[in-house]
Each structure stands twice: as C-alpha cells, then as structure tokens.
Amino acid sequence: MGNQASKVIAQKKKQEKNEKPEPSSRRSSITEFFSKRKQSITSLMKKEQDMKEHDLQQREHYLLKLARKGNTWTNLDSPKVIVESGIGNGIWALEMATQYSESQVIGLDLKLPDIQLANQTFHRANILETWPIDDDSADFVFQRNMCICIQQDQWIHVLKEMFRVIKRGGCVELIEPELLHHQPGPVLQAFHAFYKEQCTQANIDLELKSMNDWLSEVGFEAIECKMLDLPIGEWQTETGKYSIRTQVAPTHKV
What we know:
Layout: H1 2-18, H2 23-68, E1 81-85, H3 91-99, E2 104-109, E3 120-124, E4 138-144, H4 155-165, E5 166-178, H5 186-201, H6 211-218, E6 226-231, E7 243-248, E8 251-252
Parallel strand pairs: 1-2, 1-4, 2-3, 4-5
Antiparallel strand pairs: 5-7, 5-8, 6-7
C-alpha cells in the first residue's frame, strides 16, 4: 500500500510539472503588468510636473516679496481673519499664518497644499462660486496671479464675494502681472499678437483696464493702484526695455 501510494503521488507531481499554463492567462498577466507600469510612469510624470509648478510658484513668491519688501503692501494691524483667494502652493498663506500667529488664515482653492498650520483653514472651493465664508468676517482678502484663471465676465462675481466677506474698514489687495513686455522686439511683438488673440478667444482680459470700474460698481471705496516694474532678461540695467508690471489694487470697504 505504501509503495502504491508513493507511485500515485509521484505520478501526479510529474503530470503537474509537465502541464503548461494557458496562453490566455499569460497574455492577461503581461497586459496587467504593462498597465500598472503605464500608470506608474504617468503618476511619476504628474508628480514631476507638480514639482516644477511648485518650484515656479516658490520662486515667483520670493521675487515679489523681495521687490515689495514684504508679503503685502497693505499695513495690517493685528488682523483676526485673513483670506487668500487661490492659494496655489500655499507659501503666502503659510508665511502669513506664521507672521500673524494670532490670526486665522483661510485659503480657497480647488487643490489644497500639503502643509497646514494650526491657525490655518483650507477650503476646497471654486472661487467662481459662492465662497464658504461668512459675511463681514474677514479683515483682509488677498489674491494674486489669477487674471488668466478668471474670465472677463466672471470678475464681478469674484469681487462681489470679496465685498461680501470683508468687514467694514477691511481691505482687499489684488496683485496681477502685466503679461505683455514693455518695448518688445520683433519676436516678442509677434508673440504678443498671438497671445492677445488666444486670450480674446478665451474671454481673458490681460490688461484689466476696467478693474477700478468693477471695484467701484461692487461697492469698494478708497481704491488705490500701485505699479511696480521688475527687470527681466540679461540686460538688467535696461529696466524700461524688458520689464513686467505688477498691479496692486488695495481697496477699502466703508
């Protein structure tokens, strides 16, 4: 009995060894492998793009901070609530929360940063819709570099939301770059023409010439506009030839 059982087991093992896997199962395994590989590569590429965008926003933040000698042009006196519309990588909100540790810093954006301090509150929100913030609750509202994200007919809604949430005597500060270079050469002139055409088709107002009128229409008063020239290119002494203008519109609700 023992020998027969051994022969049966040995025979079964031999048959299992000679069996070949089904071609379909092999194909599915290969397909699954490359599908996962493709997802992995796509994920890595997206992370690399996010890192490049994060680095760009970081450099831009410190350039503006250096040029303006601070994170705001508005003089803030112990604000209780600070709101940033469109927080990007969150560096401005982070520094403001650190500088004003007794204040509550609220950020609005579709994509939220990874770092959040105890006195920060982030809302995953579209600023083109109703803001998840109470009326007359903010002392200071800040927004920058959103001119290519907000269409011309959407600005009134955004400004109305700012007016709704700001307290009496509060202040709103808007910073927008002038995206067309001063005194451009032939190549830049061609680029400007192309860029203007694309923005017109997308209903984007590059120059925001109507901003003061929009602010007044919403109800803001004591509107102020400051211009800051930043030299770019290799010839830094020729500030008038290659420059970008940053527009700031601090406004007061009374």
